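Renewal narrative, Specific Aim 1. Our central claim is that a sequence can be written position by position from structural information alone. The example that follows is taken directly from our test logs and has not been curated for this report. It begins with the structure tokens describing the chain, in the order in which they were read.
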């Protein structure tokens, strides 16, 4: 039990033992956080210290003084005394704690502690210790990895666990983004027999620390296994997500034997299995979901599962860190890499924020504030040299760091024909395109000529194909074969394809028949005029009824797109029913009490809204009060019109307040292609509508640009996308 000095209370516990005469007085006095006599903490934190005493049968007295607060206590004849004290909310400045022990023989022992309280945010690093296995063990079958991780600031910690089978030269993930539970099971049958180290890494979101097992331990199962592949999840990360969020699922695999990864398996924690490597998904039920991801190599071996935990909630989600950069090119530990290369990786952000990337090559900044997931051609690397590189992603507030990857360049004397280079400039990752879209790319060959260029595409799900060619390439469809044409642009008629999520792949071949390729993994085709909206329940529920009285509530919902609506009950007391066409709820309550109800309105595209309420069933003699109307916070970005002049893209935004409360709204307009952002804040009265005008700089390069308009209040949000074909007029003077 901790004593609270500032409220003048102290409890002392002791144990009494029979002993010979001796007197040690104070054996140890120190701050609990660091086991030292001096401590620095931030204002509004508590400070704790402990006092250890050994005494004989002579009574021992202890005085403790903190600034002007003095305490006195007596320990009766005993032997061992251990106690911990807490100083609550000390003021800013330097303080002194004096602990004095004395007995009836006149012996005195004094210890002093100093405390410095500062007024600034101090993020203390976490502490982590590997407990098991920690060296010398012989493991087999399923075992529990155990660790202890703490944080002085009580920050929530995430845990990564890695192993090394070459004495720490390389590390491979077992699990990433675990909760700090202190224990996680490990099936060693999935790993070859041999010598291993374990590394446990704890992160508070800003500071990352690691601990490695003190020595080598061995895995010895019956029969030896080949090296199994390793699975990695880069998105989503463990944490909270809104029920309306579309979540990006991204992962990749590595294999120590350099085997090809041929299959992927996601378990989304809701009885849904997906076999794509990357895709999007949203959860339509609030709850906690344990997600696993596995990969299979070309010899049929499956990896141990990588795991994350997603908690689906309702309400605003605080800003989250960008996705951890992953899937590097060149691959980690690649060899014979050309001395002129382009570094590439996968990125993104769970909130859809615009991300900037810094790339460090051998601890030197190679690319700064890159808006793309690649670093332009890096030249003049040394031959036969190992290079380490890392990518740091930032959304302007939070950052995430990739693992440190490495590659070795080619040996100078080796005659190496370099593959051709290609880089897709448009479309970019995650953008939306429509109509006739201009695909652009760069390509060249440093030791020859490009003799063929082909463009492929694929949709993320199996949908009937509308027109086009049927030349398949690794599940991609051939869009066009340009042969040896030198063109680096192609107009793609997206109207011939269904709306949805697509990937694009360009492959170029040089005169030595070596290929080079680049891929845009995720972008969208959207040719419909407006996005579909979820229906909105507008009626107020009946929340009070007398027992044995028929309950009726007519649920009404509207759909701005004119879609049909069906109604269903997600949660209801026994005997309650709803007409799925009209939304009329009926029920005959037999007992008094409170009963929770959740009703769902769904349009014919699967979008829905949910209304939750509690019915209070009252005794028959009760007077049912009149229902009070509830606050409704809702607005919509009902229209966005784009217009360009010589200098600006003018954005006309129509905002409609559909609730019954005044709303303070912040607008953000973002050029998805350039990253430029403009803000506007204003108050809109209930039931009112405004037009707002925002301006973004007009890009200097012609092409189609996507403008995203975000609206946020404390209780609601909306978003709308528009594309504009930017043209720069050229005038020629004729005299």
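The sequence written for that structure reads:
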């Amino acid at each position: 039990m901790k004593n609270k000095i500032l409220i003048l209370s102290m409890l002392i516990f002791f144990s009494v033992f029979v002993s010979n005469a001796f007197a040690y007085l104070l054996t140890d006095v120190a701050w609990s956080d660091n086991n030292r006599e001096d401590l620095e903490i931030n204002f509004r934190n508590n400070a704790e210290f402990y006092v250890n005493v050994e005494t004989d049968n002579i009574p021992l007295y202890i005085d403790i003084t903190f600034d002007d607060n003095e305490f006195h206590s007596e320990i009766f004849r005993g032997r061992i005394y251990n106690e911990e004290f807490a100083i609550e909310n000390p003021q800013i400045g330097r303080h002194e704690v004096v602990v004095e022990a004395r007995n009836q023989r006149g012996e005195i022992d004094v210890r002093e502690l100093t405390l410095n309280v500062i007024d600034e945010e101090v993020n203390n690093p976490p502490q982590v210790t590997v407990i098991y296995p920690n060296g010398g063990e012989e493991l087999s079958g399923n075992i529990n990895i155990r660790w202890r991780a703490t944080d002085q600031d009580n920050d929530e910690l995430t845990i990564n666990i890695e192993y090394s089978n070459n004495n720490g030269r390389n590390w491979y993930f077992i699990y990433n983004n675990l909760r700090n539970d202190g224990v996680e099971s490990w099936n060693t049958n999935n790993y070859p027999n041999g010598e291993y180290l374990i590394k446990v890494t704890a992160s508070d979101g800003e500071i990352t620390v690691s601990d490695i097992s003190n020595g080598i331990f061995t895995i010895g199962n019956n029969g030896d296994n080949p090296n199994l592949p390793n699975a990695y999840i880069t998105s989503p990360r463990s944490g909270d997500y809104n029920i309306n969020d579309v979540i990006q699922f991204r992962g990749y695999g590595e294999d120590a034997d350099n085997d090809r990864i041929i299959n992927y398996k996601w378990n989304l924690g809701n009885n849904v299995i997906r076999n794509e490597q990357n895709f999007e998904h949203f959860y339509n039920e609030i709850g906690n979901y344990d997600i696993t991801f596995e990969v299979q190599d070309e010899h049929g071996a499956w990896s141990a599962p990588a795991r994350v935990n997603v908690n689906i909630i309702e309400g605003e989600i605080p800003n989250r860190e960008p996705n951890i950069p992953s899937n590097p090119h060149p691959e980690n530990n690649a060899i014979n890499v050309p001395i002129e290369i382009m570094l590439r990786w996968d990125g993104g952000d769970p909130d859809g924020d615009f991300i900037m990337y810094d790339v460090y090559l051998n601890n030197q900044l190679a690319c700064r504030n890159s808006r793309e997931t690649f670093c332009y051609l890096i030249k003049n690397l040394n031959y036969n040299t190992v290079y380490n590189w890392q990518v740091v992603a930032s959304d302007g507030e939070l950052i995430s760091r990739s693992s440190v990857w490495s590659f070795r360049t080619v040996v100078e004397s080796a005659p190496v024909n370099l593959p051709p280079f290609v880089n897709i400039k448009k479309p970019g990752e995650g953008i939306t395109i429509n109509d006739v879209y201009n695909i652009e790319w760069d390509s060249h060959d440093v030791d020859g000529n490009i003799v063929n260029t082909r463009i492929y595409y694929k949709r993320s799900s199996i949908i009937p194909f509308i027109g086009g060619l049927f030349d398949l390439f690794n599940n991609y469809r051939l869009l066009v074969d340009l042969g040896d044409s030198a063109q680096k642009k192609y107009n793609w008629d997206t109207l011939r394809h269904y709306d949805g999520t697509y990937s694009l792949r360009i492959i170029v071949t040089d005169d030595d028949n070596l290929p080079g390729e680049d891929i845009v993994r995720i972008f969208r085709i959207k040719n419909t005029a407006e996005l579909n909206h979820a229906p909105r329940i507008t009626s107020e529920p009946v929340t009070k009824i007398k027992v044995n009285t028929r309950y009726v509530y007519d649920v009404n919902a509207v759909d701005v797109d004119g879609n049909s609506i069906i109604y269903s009950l997600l949660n209801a007391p026994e005997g309650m029913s709803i007409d799925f066409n009209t939304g009329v709820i009926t029920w005959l309550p037999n007992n008094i009490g409170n009963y929770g109800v959740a009703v769902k309105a769904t349009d014919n595209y699967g979008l829905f809204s949910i209304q939750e309420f509690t019915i209070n069933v009252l005794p028959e003699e009760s007077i049912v009060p009149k229902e009070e109307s509830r606050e409704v916070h809702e607005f919509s970005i009902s229209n966005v019109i784009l217009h360009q002049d010589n200098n600006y893209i003018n954005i006309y935004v129509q905002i409609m307040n559909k609730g019954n409360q005044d709303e303070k709204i912040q607008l953000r307009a973002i050029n998805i292609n350039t990253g430029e952002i403009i803000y506007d804040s204003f108050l809109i009265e209930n039931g009112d509508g405004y037009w707002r005008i925002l301006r973004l700089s007009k890009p200097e390069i012609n092409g189609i640009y996507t403008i995203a308009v975000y609206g946020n209040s404390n209780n609601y949000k909306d978003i709308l996308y528009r594309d504009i074909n930017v043209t720069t007029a050229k005038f020629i003077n004729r005299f």
